[in-house]
From TrEMBL:
<dbReference type="GO" id="GO:0005829">
    <property type="term" value="C:cytosol"/>
</dbReference>
<keyword id="KW-0324">Glycolysis</keyword>
<dbReference type="GO" id="GO:0006094">
    <property type="term" value="P:gluconeogenesis"/>
</dbReference>
<keyword id="KW-0312">Gluconeogenesis</keyword>
<dbReference type="InterPro" id="IPR001387">
    <property type="entry name" value="Cro/C1-type_HTH"/>
</dbReference>
<protein>
    <submittedName>
        <fullName>Glucose-6-phosphate isomerase</fullName>
    </submittedName>
</protein>
<keyword id="KW-0413">Isomerase</keyword>
<dbReference type="GO" id="GO:0051156">
    <property type="term" value="P:glucose 6-phosphate metabolic process"/>
</dbReference>
<dbReference type="GO" id="GO:0004347">
    <property type="term" value="F:glucose-6-phosphate isomerase activity"/>
</dbReference>
<dbReference type="InterPro" id="IPR046348">
    <property type="entry name" value="SIS_dom_sf"/>
</dbReference>
<dbReference type="InterPro" id="IPR001672">
    <property type="entry name" value="G6P_Isomerase"/>
</dbReference>
<feature type="domain" description="HTH cro/C1-type">
    <location>
        <begin position="360"/>
        <end position="386"/>
    </location>
</feature>
<dbReference type="GO" id="GO:0097367">
    <property type="term" value="F:carbohydrate derivative binding"/>
</dbReference>
<dbReference type="GO" id="GO:0048029">
    <property type="term" value="F:monosaccharide binding"/>
</dbReference>
<dbReference type="Pfam" id="PF00342">
    <property type="entry name" value="PGI"/>
</dbReference>
<dbReference type="GO" id="GO:0006096">
    <property type="term" value="P:glycolytic process"/>
</dbReference>
């Protein structure tokens, strides 16, 4: 891999010397690097994945052969955060078709259904085996396959840690199960079963990813280590925001994976580094810029996908050492989950009471903790960054994406974007645990398609509403500025909102 750009000249030699000693300890999986209370004792096996994941190859070869022989060439992956982001990047890099379902929005679920169910393989990925979104997807697809006259055991592949509730129930049901290493955290699991099972089903040569990662990792605890250099720069040359661009690179979509890894790992104790995804250099509103291909960036990092995966995991772990935070926990993610669960239960029992909007028109209603009536007024709120949190169906051409540049131009501040509830397993940790200087624009909508969760007393529309409101509550309880815009009709309401801005 190659590191270049003007920022390289600002590498702090003292920091590098300090990190070299830490990198040597990391290479031998010293669990004490991040303090006595760190989750490191149960989370450090990612360091060895370029080697240990080779043990999966016979099982993955068998799985791939099973899919080919049964003509299962339409792959759908249900998983949140670390259970799906790496696989999505692998598919994009190798130009393979992979449908990723990381939403509880009913329309998104319906859009993810296979074109030919008989030729589909559905991967259900959950480290804990209890992720409410993914377990709900499993129940839905089991029911869907049965209704199609197909046997679920002929189309389902489960990826989870050994001994989880999902592991036990899936084996009992006769589903194909691949166990991941339980000593690897979700966002550090790119080279584990979570990234490799979907890749194998897509016919990708996994050994090439592992070869590249293994060779690169041997340089990370040596003099002139690129991981040490970049970690020191992200610590010394950034205070919070850095911009990252994968446009025109050999790793399309990698920025989304880096965003989750860095934000969720570093964003705690009032500290953190916030990656802002950009498509071009002229979108920058403060902070250094990192490009994954040649260009006018402050720092350019060129590498293969396997190298990038293990590189950024090392960078993140070393950066967290400098920030004095535990890279492996996510304490504030639980806040939103607990509040969502409470709201979902109140919806189920009929005790839920809707908020009163501060303003509304024929297209949308506005709810806010601030004394404002419009989005334009809200954007005058002092902040270091704005975050758009969109609980809408995820598409590449959704009108809501136009808000990123509009809000950035209006505020002259960095703007991040997250699809809900996906971001809850990503930047959601940093929003609540990082620097308390963000402003949050949450967008929800009326749901056009009602969809039941088989075996449950709630619908998917109830679940996504509870998740949005639960996170909004967790944000406002921290006295952070939030506006929620509830759309009555997605397209027309978004067009009016954009027109007003």
């Amino acid at each position: 891999m190659k590191i270049s750009g003007p920022l390289v000249s600002k590498i702090d030699k003292d920091l590098v010397a300090e990190l070299l000693a830490i990198a040597v300890r990391l290479a031998i999986k010293d669990t004490k690097i991040w303090g006595a209370d760190s989750e490191a004792p149960t989370r450090l096996n990612w360091v060895d994945l370029p080697v240990t994941s080779r043990d999966l190859l016979p099982q993955l070869d068998s799985l791939s052969a099973w899919a080919r022989s049964n003509k299962l060439d339409e792959v759908i992956l249900c998983g949140m955060g670390g259970s799906s982001l790496a696989a999505e990047v692998i598919a994009k890099t190798y130009n393979k078709s992979l449908v990723v379902l990381d939403s509880t929005h009913p329309d998104q679920i319906l859009n993810s259904l296979p074109k030919n169910p008989a030729n589909s393989v559905i991967v259900i990925s959950s480290k804990s085996g209890t992720t409410i979104e993914t377990i709900s997807h499993l129940k839905y697809f089991v029911n869907y396959l049965n209704n199609q006259g197909l046997k679920p055991e002929n189309h389902l592949v489960i990826v989870t840690d050994p001994g989880t509730p999902l592991d036990k129930s899936s084996r009992k049901s006769g589903y194909k199960v691949v166990n991941a290493d339980p000593l690897v955290g979700g966002r550090f699991s790119a080279l584990s079963a979570f990234g490799l099972v979907p890749a194998a089903l897509l016919g990708i040569d996994i050994s090439l990813l592992l070869d590249d990662a293994e060779l690169a990792s041997k340089t990370f605890y040596q003099v002139n280590s690129p991981a040490i250099e970049v970690a020191s720069l992200l610590f010394s040359q950034t205070k919070q925001v850095f911009n990252i661009c994968d446009s025109k690179s050999n790793v399309p979509g990698l920025s989304d994976w880096i965003e989750q890894l860095v934000a969720e790992s570093t964003g705690k104790n009032g500290l953190g580094r916030l990656p802002v995804l950009i498509k071009s250099i002229d979108q920058i509103k403060g902070g250094v810029s990192i490009g994954l291909s040649k260009g006018e960036f402050d720092l350019i990092i060129e590498a293969s996908l396997g190298e990038h995966f293990i590189f950024w995991e090392w960078v993140t772990a070393l950066l967290c050492y400098l920030l004095k935070v535990d890279p492996f926990n996510q304490p504030n993610v639980t806040e939103a989950k607990e509040r969502s669960s409470t709201i979902l239960n109140s919806i189920i029992t009929g005790d839920f009471k809707s908020e009163i909007p501060v303003a509304e028109n024929g297209e949308y209603s506005i709810y806010s903790t601030q004394k404002i009536k419009t989005l334009a007024e809200f954007l005058k709120t002092p902040a270091e960054y704005f975050a758009i949190l969109a609980y809408l169906p995820r598409t590449d051409n959704n009108e809501v994406l136009k808000l990123i540049q509009l809000i950035s131009n209006k505020t002259n501040k960095p703007v991040t974007f997250g699809w809900g509830p996906r971001y809850l397993h990503s930047t959601g940790q940093l929003h609540k645990g990082g620097q308390p200087n963000g402003c949050f624009v949450q967008i929800t909508s009326e749901v056009e398609s009602e969809l039941a969760v088989p075996g449950e007393s709630f619908k998917f529309s109830d679940l996504i509403e509870a998740q949005a409101l639960g996170d909004a509550l967790a944000i406002t309880e921290r006295r952070l500025p939030l506006i929620r815009i509830h759309l009555r009709n997605n397209n027309s309401a978004l067009k009016q909102l954009i027109s007003e801005l």
